[in-house]
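User: Fold this one for me? It's Acetyl-CoA carboxylase biotin carboxylase subunit.
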Amino acid sequence: MFRKVLVANRGEIAVRVMRACEELNVGTVAIYSEADKDSGHVRYADEAYNVGPARAADSYLDHDAVIEAAKKADADAIHPGYGFLAENAEFARKVEQTEGITWVGPSGDAMEALGEKTKARSIMQEADVPIVPGTTEPVTDPEQVEEFGEKHGYPIAIKAEGGGGGRGMKVVWDESEVEDQLESAKREGEAYFDNASVYLERYLEKPRHIEVQIVADEHGNVRHLGERDCSLQRRHQKVIEEGPSAALSDELREKIGEAARRGVAAADYTNAGTVEFLVEEEPGRDGPLGPDANFYFLEVNTRIQVEHTVTEEITGIDIVKRQLKIAAGEEIDFDQEDVEIDGHAMEFRINAENAADDFAPATGGTLETYDPPGGIGVRMDDALRQGDELVTDYDSMIAKLVVWGEDRDECIARSLRALREYDIEGIPTIIPFHRLMLTDEEFVESTHTTKYLDEELDESRIEEAQEQWGGDTGDGASDEDEESVEREFTVEVNGKRFEVELEEHGGPAIPVGDVDASGTQASRPEPAGGSGSDEADIAGDGEVVDAEMQGTILDVEVEEGDEVAAGDVLVVLEAMKMENDIVASQGGEVTQIAVEEGESVDMGDTLVVLE
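Assistant: Here's what I get for Acetyl-CoA carboxylase biotin carboxylase subunit.
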């Protein structure tokens, strides 16, 4: 087994991996960006290293910085968690080629074969696994998309090769959207997964989303650990996951599980992974879907997934520990027949979002109260404590509530109890939305599809739930004017983090920020479009278009002198791993552009001025 593992991730998944390491008596190393210097995963780890500024591309996605941190820490393994570099074959190969460090995951070659979706489709097709009509080679030109549409019809899904969970996926409903959606999908793939390649699929309009958890070792053993139903989604983002699926008959469940095993075995895959399928729902069905129901391979996620917790609860198998053991060369010590499904489990993603406001992410705030639930069958995966400031530079998910019951009915009842107990004040969360879903007829009857939330649910019910159960969500920002008496410092020596605590009574405020060699406090970095003042230097009296949230400028769609109409896209802003089009509210001439591509902005920063 390894001596020390660096976890190349943040938040709750980093702590989840570290806990597995602790139980195996393995040391833990965290990495963090400037935005995460006080985050929970940094507190939990034995050691922590700064890998760069808040922007993910300059920190968590920086291959060299992550590997250099592992070398400094003398770690002998790197676990990527999920997201960031978890499915980056190039990074996996770099780790594999680094002497003394083991990659905890599938090999770079296997990751490329299954993680890049077009290659995965080819492998599955050869293994006699049903696939949705689509391309098996990347597409680069709008003409290719149009030709596909002429042959298979619209709508078409354009998907990033390295994507997943709806990231880097765009739906084209007709020919007029082809060029814009293709560029957007490529841009998201590059920004989030360091891979701009995209492919096409026929877009199934109302399917169920069923996925199979697998583990495979270097000795040729492949096991599946049952399925999860992830059909409750919003804009292709999973919200509640459960297992086993209440919509599948045992015969169909077995067919899907064996198809997953067959496909993974054909790819010479090792470690943990998830094979995702789309299952066609049968409207008005009486009972579960039978063995003749249509199902299609969607993709393989070559990593641990957010919802792995569901499978752990119903099988009793610690998947993260299995990952570590397999990476260390150990053989899987159970047969497929030994995998037993016990009871029912659900996972609730606790996102810092206001579901009643189109699931708008919080732009800041402090966890004034943080009191998670407990009791039999209740599990919390988080990296939070009361008083923490909300970090808004990355994903909006702050925790996961996982609930087990002897059957689905008990699981729902216990989940309602746990959600009622969950007390969070200071930021908005989607806990009221979860409570609503557990009383929703479609969800309770398990007849919902992946389109239910986007197309069928009455949004007024979400507003009512938020009003009834939303509680104190704060004002969305921290109080920076409050006098602090805390004397805690973080010191970095050669990139390694040390905590220093001082107690001082009645002393003057200690300056914060960078200090140069002479002891003089350095100036703050310039705001977007400005030069040291709190606001950008804006000329003219026209409409000032501000950033609605903190994020990174992915693209500037206009130039000074351009004439724009109301609704035209001015800037594309990335926030919470999602693209947001910033549009003109009225027509006019672009007289000033205060930002540039790749620049980080805060909420309220000026982006564009129109006359």
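One thing worth pointing out: The mean pLDDT is 88.
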